[in-house]
Structure formats: structure tokens, C-alpha cells
Q: What sequence folds into this?
């Protein structure tokens, strides 16, 4: 006769234990089976290893400022012009924060410089150490300390450039909000 009362008194305890143990077991199962896709808010590709101007043996051209690096191609046709326009628009869209960010056009000896007349882009010579990381039409975002943070691959087409400009702007706004440097 005592067994029904023991079962009745143990039932709330078992339900309470199940309420705490079952979610933990389910979470463990989801994580171990890789059913959960990790959340990432960045749009660009983060550099896997810490790469900086210093590790490449290069002097930081604009210390204490965020930099968007773009390699000028040999001939600046429509795709290059769209890219330059997108960069200028993204920089303007930063508003009050645009003083913290510089657009750096990296020039190789054979780069087309005809599009640069009458613009306010900052230019610098493309170092050989950076040439391997900065492909044509690609962008690299650099922090004020000279660390290469994100890269954006080259895209073609007006819509793709606009989409990438929005992604770059979103990443920049987040980084500028969180950064106390530059």
C-alpha cells in the first residue's frame, strides 16, 4: 500500500528533474551532431590568421584610421568605375564617422590612374607583400593599428557592387561602433 504514495510523491520530483535534464541533453545532441549553424553577423570574410602591416614588413600608411584598401587595375573600365563609385558612396554613407575611415587606392606601376583626377581618394604604392592578398577588384578592411581585418572578393555587375557596398557599410558601422581606436 505504500508504493502508490511513494510513486505519487516521486512524480513531481521526476518531472522537475526531466524539465532541467532534457533541454541539456537536447542541446548536447544538437551541438554534437552539428545541426546548429553558428551565427555570424559579419558580411566580409575575416582573415584566418593575424595579418598586419607589421607582420608583412610594411609601414602603416595612415595610422590611427580605418582603411578600405582597393587595388587599382591596369585599365579602369566600367566595372572599376562602378567599384570606385560604390566605395565613394559607402564612405559618404558613414556620415559623421567618415572622418575615421580612409579610402586607400593601392597603385602598382601599371595601374590606370586616369580615373583619379579630381577625386579625393588617398593613393599609395602597392607593396609586393600586400599584392598577394589584395587581388584586383577585391577590398580589404584594415583597422587603425594596421591589422587586416576583413576581405571582400571582387564582384561584377551593378547589383552585386551595390549589395557588397551595403555589406561593407554594415560591417564598418559595427566595427566603428565597437572600436575606441581611430
A:
Amino acid at each position: 500500500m505504500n508504493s502508490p504514495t511513494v510513486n505519487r510523491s516521486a512524480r513531481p520530483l521526476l518531472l522537475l528533474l526531466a524539465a532541467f535534464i532534457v533541454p541539456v541533453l537536447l542541446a548536447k545532441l544538437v551541438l554534437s551532431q552539428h545541426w546548429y549553424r553558428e551565427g555570424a553577423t559579419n558580411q566580409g570574410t575575416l582573415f584566418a590568421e593575424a595579418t598586419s602591416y607589421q607582420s608583412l614588413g610594411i609601414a602603416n600608411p595612415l595610422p590611427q584610421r580605418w582603411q578600405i584598401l582597393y587595388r587599382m587595375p591596369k585599365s579602369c573600365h566600367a566595372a572599376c568605375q562602378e567599384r570606385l563609385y560604390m566605395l565613394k558612396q559607402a564612405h559618404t554613407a558613414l556620415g559623421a564617422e567618415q572622418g575615421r575611415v580612409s579610402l586607400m587606392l593601392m597603385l602598382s606601376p601599371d595601374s590606370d590612374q586616369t580615373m583619379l583626377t579630381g577625386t579625393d581618394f588617398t593613393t599609395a604604392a602597392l607593396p609586393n607583400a600586400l599584392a598577394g592578398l589584395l587581388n584586383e577588384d577585391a577590398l580589404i578592411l584594415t583597422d587603425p593599428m594596421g591589422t587586416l581585418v576583413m576581405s571582400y572578393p571582387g564582384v561584377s555587375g551593378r547589383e552585386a557592387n551595390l549589395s557588397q557596398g551595403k555589406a561593407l557599410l554594415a560591417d564598418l558601422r559595427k566595427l566603428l561602433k565597437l572600436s575606441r581606436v581611430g
